[in-house]
Design goal:
single chain, 2 helices, Sialidase, signal, mainly beta, Sialidase_sf
């Protein structure tokens, strides 16, 4: 018996030694600070899903939303909600669909959550056959997303936040970053001083000398009335614009040094003034003007101009990891929500105090010894 115990101890020691001697997963070097990485659900009644938004309620609970159905643009696509309760996510529950008064049906799109301070939880979403013809809808919840009001159609010509969350400004205005895709791509803002009861528009932002085409902006708040947007573009780069009067006027769109593969992004200003950006840091290829929606990266900045690489949330050559959302909760943690291969929805929690910064020079993601960045050739090999 003693010999068996001794042998077990030796084998356990050798196993532990061998395990510790193994080189760590190279991606670990880009995932410091991650405290939770999970799927929102294991199984669902729909095969395809997309476009995440996440919010922390006044009570401190998390609510997650996305659209799901047969596939994007299919009339059966509905808006789903999951709530974090008792240490787990509730199953996806449909809270909005595109059934019209005459019984016909259209797809729903791009839900966006916003928690009014000590007030309603707002759910913005779109209904329409395609982005150039959709219209804005709004629902409200008074119980952390358990039940929802009847749908309100926004005033004619208003869409609400088109993909990314609204931002409450120091002057009390809620600014909704939005855009249109009809007669070219254009970014504008829809502002409400009373959380969706009355509205007015600002913009569209001038496209500049290069006629930059941007949609789906995120708003960063630099304080003292200075705002910045970062947006998806058709010009192989993230585009930006600045306002110095709380969003009433904006500079023409300008290219940043960060690449964009014509895919959605999101950003947030943390309580300490640091700005966080989540996006696919990859240039489109000559054969694919959109480029693969992988890897999914996170960068931070103190001024919105010089960015540091801090995280790679996903780096598989199997696309796609896309349409992310990011918020900071009251405990200081960052929460990322995004589409996982159009099959499931992901949630990643990060402690920003644990992040390691590496400067992004000339738009090139920094290299780290032992980790090889995916290349376009890698994606092509995987697709073939």
């Amino acid at each position: 018996m003693k010999n068996k115990i001794g042998l077990t101890v030796i084998l356990s020691f050798l196993f532990l030694f061998e395990t510790q001697a193994q080189p760590k997963n190279a991606l670990d070097k880009w995932q410091k600070g991650i405290v939770k990485d999970e799927f929102i659900y294991d199984k669902a009644t729909f095969p395809s899903c997309h476009s995440a938004s996440i919010a922390e309620t006044t009570a401190g609970n998390l609510v997650y939303t996305f659209f799901g159905g047969t596939r994007e643009r299919n009339p059966d696509v509905e808006i789903y909600i999951c709530r974090y309760e008792n240490g787990a996510w509730t199953p996806p529950t449909s809270v909005a669909d595109g059934v019209l008064e005459d019984g016909s049906r259209l797809p729903t799109w791009n839900p966006v959550l916003y928690q009014v301070p000590n007030g309603d939880l707002l759910l913005f979403y779109k209904i329409g056959p395609k982005p150039s013809e959709w219209w804005g809808m709004l629902k409200r919840s008074t119980d952390d997303g358990k039940t929802w009001s009847a749908a309100e159609k926004l005033p004619e010509g208003y869409l609400g936040p088109v993909k990314n969350k609204p931002v409450l400004l120091s002057n009390g205005n809620l600014i909704c970053p939005t855009s249109t895709e009809g007669d070219g791509w254009n970014i504008h803002f829809e502002i409400t001083p009373d959380f969706g009861k009355t509205w007015r528009k600002v913009g569209p932002i001038a496209t500049g000398e290069d006629n930059l085409q941007g949609i789906q902006p995120s708003v960063l708040d630099h304080g003292n009335g200075t705002l910045q947007i970062l947006a998806r573009s058709r010009n192989w780069a993230l585009v930006e614009s600045w306002s110095y009067d709380n969003g009433e006027t904006w500079t023409p769109l300008h290219k940043t040094t960060l690449p964009n593969n014509n895919s959605g992004t999101d950003a947030v200003t943390m309580d300490n003034g640091m700005h966080v950006l989540v996006y696919n840091h990859v240039l489109p290829g000559p054969e694919n003007p959109k480029g693969p929606r992988t890897p999914l990266n996170v960068a931070i900045s103190t001024d919105g101009k010089k960015w540091h690489a801090v995280l790679i949330l996903e780096d598989s050559p199997i696309s796609q990891y896309s349409y992310p959302a990011v918020i900071q909760t009251k405990d200081g943690l960052l929460h990322f929500a995004y589409t996982w291969r159009r099959q499931k929805m992901k949630h990643v929690v990060v402690n920003p105090k644990k992040l390691k910064k590496r400067v992004i020079k000339d738009g090139v993601w920094p290299t780290v010894k032992g980790y090889e960045l995916p290349t376009l050739e890698t994606y092509k090999a995987e697709e073939e």
